């Protein structure tokens, strides 16, 4: 069952009912100011950091759900009298009012959301977006009277302020109920309500909610606005038709503006609401610091400036157009015409859009990530880069520097860092032994995309300690060296606290209820090994050697040093590869790990958890077993034992009991999450592995099985948005197979884009140029991929002929790597047969 | 304005409307299992620890407020058919339904709450309580058909499960939405729904919600029960009249039982709902661990046993009677007949009840303390003891041991500890230099109450480290010694991170937005001093010396050691006292402190924060200045400069700007909290100080100004419960003077009971016996106080004659200390004139 449709020409998913199985959301904002917005107007805004600088309040896991965010009320009034009463009230976003609408559409676009609604012949269109380089969300509301009579329409817009730190805001009430402060400013043509809680003391930032109109009145006290026992669906002032002009002192400050519109038949009027965030220099905090009568009155100048940039419809239209143009340009970087509209829309729009969002958010703020716990992940963000780097390489570069700056001198890393402070998160700590190698993956992707070797000599500190800076290349060396120096009894890398599968905790042995597996003491005795990290080392160790060989000279290494270092790493790779192929091979698939007792994990000798997905994907991606049938055998096992209609499960059979020696993985009910769920992140690894093994039908089938556009018609079962990936789909052993959870913030976004763009469509940046090798099933015969790479547009026409050739400007290449033009050529025509 | 009335004979506050200004709550439970319950049925339950073992989910600061806790729905059905439809539905607790009731009463009693409601001629009475020594909340629901027709009434009872750790439950959704698990058990005469999330793994505890009846059906999935967009006021299954028999797999597990009752005219039927908590031994977790078909099926035997103890009306009545008897016996420990019903009800019922609650909860779980952050406070709990020790000295003894076990070897202390683990809370840390001395106060109160000197030789560890145990007396010595060894330039004790006023942070200099003043680096340079701690040292140092002199021998000290130790401490007291009277005296009041630059805080030389309440109260309580007029002068300044109709403010004038050298105190808006609010905790210090200075009218007036019963008729302004204290009332400089906040968990409870019982009514336990010295205003002429003290009942008849005498059995004592009988006398008649 579907709840909407794709509008590819507008780059939108058009939701046709508010009653989606779950809120279906979108992200507004690109750099510092972000908003989440659901198809019923839910969500919240924050500046840079969803924990430390939350602007509006949002209640997770609430009843009723998804209420109290962008609260707009359209009240058809019985007259234009001062004491007019509402005949009926509804929300242009459906919620919070819940009043049935005569028509409803929510267009989730690329960086904007549009709500179209109608009731009583009043048509409304609410457009929400965050303009480029702007710390504000714009909500433009157009209302049209399609009736034959004039109408009086009261429009009330409101937000609820979060007292900045989202954790404190939801726990420290004995303090917070006394701190709230606001200011109200009524200009002749605009009304601004300021949230200045704690500005009195150490904060140098405030927020405002403004409308480009005088108002009938306002409210800033939530209790006054809602009245007793009411929800956001039925505020007292809305029912009464009268605002209270309340001024909040502590308790729960909000901002509510009420504007009265008179609309002639056929007339349209527009209002612009702006939710803005302002930072001021310490010395500029106050309006008039020397005037005792003005103590505590904030400096509103920068708010006025920001507001006046969007005070007219023309300004707002221009800003939205600018945003659209920006995205159009970004998305030209990679596009395909494949003849399959689902593939095209995912590749050309939604995969890349989700990659931008995961790059921006890491795993911090979604409708499932509360924005209170997790910062930017070392592992996560490196992987997110893989799908993002082609869009804005400059931001990827900065991210790499930020990530590497949290690495320790021994090559290990903080597992997460807080985006506002960029410091390692001591609550989580480190010890995840796969983390360092992901830095190689991220840097390699950046180099392949840009060829910008200057990043390798960029001075980068350890653990953010000033003075500890070394060139980035040295960080890579330490990453690789960390694995080399942390191997176990079988010569396979030690797993540490955990590897990519955070929940496989082989050194933790937690027996205390509720204890976090992420932070419980890590009793690494040097025994527990990860075959998965073994595969990673072969893959990313190899990338490191390539980087050295390509760019070592530029960084000041001598040829001899380069040769010695590369040879050493390749020798280590050979050893690990050998260990993986022997101790790491179970007969029909790769073993997952060795536990702290040096017993196999992921083996046919066990009754549960016999086969895990991760080593099959990663080892084959690293090329292990491609030459001797092990890869094909492992992939066959994946298909036979892990794959169902909904995708490929993480392991099977799921664990029915808790196994203290395995940790969190066995804590989940069967079929969910890491215990037998379809953990989408690693499905593209299997697709890539199949592509590398030339299993082209299966490679694409793996991609297709849980690709949103292809399973859109199962939205009633999957529940999550049909335009983006979710973290996990309940596996075949779950009571609710196919049910998706934790949408948006998942490494699936980046890995899927890598899979489909670089392996299935087969246009892959390398250090030497653009490699082209499509792996597509029979139905694809004729495609065009357009790729902007290092400033050059490659127009790649692909035709199925049965023979693999790559020609540039009519000339056939020896291999499949299209070199970067050395002249100022801006367009390269590539003809590919396959 | 009032919203109810006191029913003293029933020991109840009877709330007459659901529309109280804020939820007015009560506490159920005495030892391990606790519930909060508001006058509209809100609240939640937990076992021992509101953070780590929360049983039901509660949403703080929610919209709509106070919903979704105890959800009972009475549905008048149109027939007894299987597909009968509801004619109307309401809640016997008003919320969540909000359906208007024909009559409503909520009786907040001592350890129980009763809701009486009526609609459509159906009268309901819901009685909620936690039986003694039982890990369950009982909800007995009686429904009576007062109409002339038979009716069909569907009763649905429901709770929403919290996934145990309240912090994780409200943040870690990417995990928690996949972990929820339940079991449903339908017996012939009962229905039990089990919440077993994470029992699969490390937990050995589960909860259940049961009813002593077969059911029409059940629900365990919140989404199924509520349906889309609905709140707890209008669940879909309630509107439909049909449950879904849903089984939750992850997402949001609840328990909902629906029972159908047929009531003849005049007939009453009763249902008993039990919310129980079960812990099992590890080896007893499973029903049949060897049967593969029963994997994961929990051992329900202990739940059956618990449930069957309360499965009949007779059993429930007996348990409630037992609870009432228990309280009647407790409250006989101290009672008064004064001729003033307000004084009597507060002393005889509500002060002592609140003391029990603050003893149990410290500052962890109320409607303002979210139960997620704060554990048991070292300072808080010692003070809470002062008002509780007479009720159950044995529990006070254990608490003292628990508190002292978190002390460090140098005498300093963790500021808080977690009740479940009893370990110091590293998130908060230590360095609050008043903390150690409060241990002396607590132990002295215990000794005075019980004469049980064996506590002094009890081995007690430092920082909970096994093997570090020393006798408790040694802990006291180190407490006192900590102050002796931490004095500043003026010979006044150093303040450290902060003293009682957590928000006066003289060594923190925080400039980072949102940084916690409690945990920011403490840059104590040995300069900032606290006159308040000076007063404390004089008072509690003296108590320590008394303890040594009284009991030193029993602990093995020689007479010479005792004399030397006592002399040394008294000499130190003399020095500190001298320092306070010189450097600590501002001319008309005591200085509050010296800051890190050695500048006075709380001085007429400043324009704001000229006078603080704390040193005036504490220094005079310590006896400083009583002999030379300073005490009278200080108290006059308190009255003139800090006191208004609502009570005595903490300081004046309030700070209008942030002062980095003072810290959090200046962060609040003027008139709120520590910045000029009436911080109720220290008002009794002023009352005691006035009593000691023989200002009897003012001593009582201070008590009266913010004593709940005396200000009941201002409930519309105060907002908080009129039967217990709140932490803070907005001060005269606030925009909302008189508005109360943070009710229930405040040291005001203990200190007020100390004040009124020991100083105003003047019956004070001492190491030597019961001292009697009333300080009452003119209107009190004839009173009787009954006090059970060390196993003996003292019946104390007091008469105003103008002369102070104390006679026992007709014989006048030389002093005012009634000695403890050395024979087995159980009743002592004391005659007092004043």
TrEMBL record, chains A, B:
GO biological processes: carbohydrate metabolic process
SMART domains (UniProt xref): CBM_X (SM01068)
Entry annotated with the keyword Zinc-finger: no
Molecular functions (GO terms): carbohydrate binding; glycosyltransferase activity
Keywords of this entry: Glycosyltransferase, Transferase
One Pfam family per UniProt: GH94_b-supersand
Superkingdom of this protein's organism: Bacteria
Domain Glycosyl hydrolase 94 supersandwich: 11-285
SUPFAM superfamilies cross-referenced by the UniProt entry: Galactose mutarotase-like, Six-hairpin glycosidases
Domain Glycosyl hydrolase 94 catalytic: 326-762
InterPro entries per UniProt: 6-hairpin_glycosidase_sf, 6hp_glycosidase-like_sf, Gal_mutarotase_sf_dom, GH65_N, GH94_catalytic, GH94_Enzymes, Glyco_hydrolase_94_b-supersand
Protein name: Glycosyl transferase
Species assigned in the record: Bifidobacterium moukalabense DSM 27321
